[in-house]
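User: For a benchmark we're assembling, each entry needs the component sequences followed by a predicted structure for the full assembly. Here are entry 17's components. Please fill in the structure.
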Amino acid sequence: MGASDRPSVLVDGRVATVVPVTDRGLQYADGLFETIRMHEGRAPLWRRHMARLAQGAERLGLPAPEPDLLAQECAQVSAGLPAAVCKIIYTRGSGGQAYTPPQTPVPLRIVISREAPVLSADGLAVTFCQTRLATSPSLAGLKHCGRLEQGLARRELVDSGFDEGLMCDAGGQVIEATSANLFVLRNDILYTPDLANAGVAGVMRELVMERLVAEGCPVREEALSPEDCRQAQALFLCNAVRGIMPVTRLEVQNLEVPPLVRKLARDIAALLDGGVGRGA
Amino acid sequence: MGASDRPSVLVDGRVATVVPVTDRGLQYADGLFETIRMHEGRAPLWRRHMARLAQGAERLGLPAPEPDLLAQECAQVSAGLPAAVCKIIYTRGSGGQAYTPPQTPVPLRIVISREAPVLSADGLAVTFCQTRLATSPSLAGLKHCGRLEQGLARRELVDSGFDEGLMCDAGGQVIEATSANLFVLRNDILYTPDLANAGVAGVMRELVMERLVAEGCPVREEALSPEDCRQAQALFLCNAVRGIMPVTRLEVQNLEVPPLVRKLARDIAALLDGGVGRGA
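Assistant: Structure for entry 17:
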């Protein structure tokens, strides 16, 4: 199938541009999503995305997703794109009585593709957003469809001169950026915010932590304040679409990118863009 | 138009059963809703619903909704139903770049009707849900589309023998029921949870507070613990669809319904079902 024939959206496996108005994803944000980088039809982090989606489905009481079916649909929508991002949305479907979900949900499956952004080694200018992330013990870690706070935070960044914004939870602890997880180097120790009560447990965050441990550089999951970030030697952000994003400016302060972060960024870029054969 | 010809869903004013897959309501819960009780084509709490929707739109940076248009569409979808519930969903529409909203959003407007439940004076059996509500200073009070926590809490109630469940926020304070606000009578003083950091500021809650003040019975908005509820003389729930719902059992404890609550329930039922001419 040529790029021009490529369907960019599949809904329950069929080319479509619409979903039922009754879908609980629309009505209540009752669903999950994954945003997956593909390189020539292959998704280097596929297993991690599917594991998180399955865990999320279990937490929400949704039937387990079917990875083989989803893989086929991601391949179909991204055919002809050398570097693509596939977004899978997996909702509880329709039915139930107002907030009460249906006893036997029939999930709705949406797969959407777009061209992937070029992986860049340029650093980001980052600030703190005023919009707070929810402290939500029942939903923390999940990549659920309720992302209104992220949208409000992104509105703050428009025309601000900053590329990304760090978000604090209700208690004022730094949790993550609007669309990336955060790592902080301070006193030669790497930290990443604890996500027990807020935030999205990113698949790239997980991979980065494993790689750093393997290289003898463990990461501490702890509560971090804005002041901890301001006093850091270095910061970087990461997600599954853009890999490692070093922070070269936090508010008015310029930051160096240490060799460790440069090397990690190169390694992850090679992995995401297919330069290495090793799994992740 | 007879009941059989009645369209049950209008999307942007047209009879429809689907919405664009790109809608930010679906993608990110980036929208608001109202659930409005209609009696013979009239919505007794219309002005309050429209005021809350307008305030929510302002907080989210959405264009102001058009009440006259929405009134016409609610009348259209509920024609032929003596007692209807109209749900209005008002999203940011499509566009933007991932979480970043479009600079000039073109909202999507969905109006759905169903038969209204019969107003009942029967008391409810209520328990505490394990699912926590988010503590979310940036979204507190808003009736936004992210209602996943309410759905998970309702799942706990299925086959539990309880009609409703009280939900605590991340800090363990009681905020509201899954689909109703809460009032607690304790030491002859009426309380309702403070909603500065969590919960939905219900239009019925607002009306009830005004009525009670007018009758010389002010309500204190304070933090309330589960223990405060267990030690109460009486509790009642309220929402715009079902009016006043006295609690006659909390967990294993039976509760009386005081005359004040009975009278309030009668007054609100009369208002909702059109028995009184006075506005609200």
